Amino acid sequence: MSTQKPQKRLVGWRQYVGTIGAIVFGRSFAFAFRWGGLVCFGFSVFTFMLSIGNSDINAKPITGNRLYPLMMGSLYLGLFLGAMGIANTLFKKVEAIEPVELLTKHNAKDLPEIETLVRGSANPPTNQTELLRPAGHGAETPPEQLLRAAQENRQDS
Question: Which end of the chain is more exposed for a tag (fewer CB within 10 A), N or C?
């Protein structure tokens, strides 16, 4: 299975800046969520260890000093899982963005013909005689009717 890089699409300046900005900010936020998740995981491990360290084998049911670290550890563990889920979603969205390249005068020749608005003057698309062909023969309006409205206006004046 070959892993070829997809062909980069040539785009204008605004679309290029928007796409690159989306990639940079998406990755930045994903890394921030991932690091935040790892910090929350560290806090959850610490609070669970704290609750184990404060436990007494002969103690009554979990109350007070032992309940608080367990609740906080569970909260941090939930924050860890949520942050990792958001980070993975952001990474997937960034990877789905189509790669683009800025359109310059050096790579404009690489555009497909359908996306080219201006063609060179060396090869006209059609023959000049074809552009200036005479009108077809058919039912023509008599000259009397064409000038009738203009003549009526002159007589009224």
Answer: N
- Residue 139, sorted as left (phi over 0), alpha (psi -120 to 50) or beta, turns out to be beta
Nearest to 94 by CA among 22, 17, 31: 22
* pTM of the shown model: 0.57
Could you write out the three-class secondary structure of 31-87?
Answer: HHHHHHHHHHHHHHHHHHHHHHHCCCCCCCCCCCCCHHHHHHHHHHHHHHHHHHHHH
Q: Is pLDDT at 51 greater than 60 in this prediction?
A: yes
- Residue 157: which H helix or E strand, with range? none
Strand partners, 101: 10
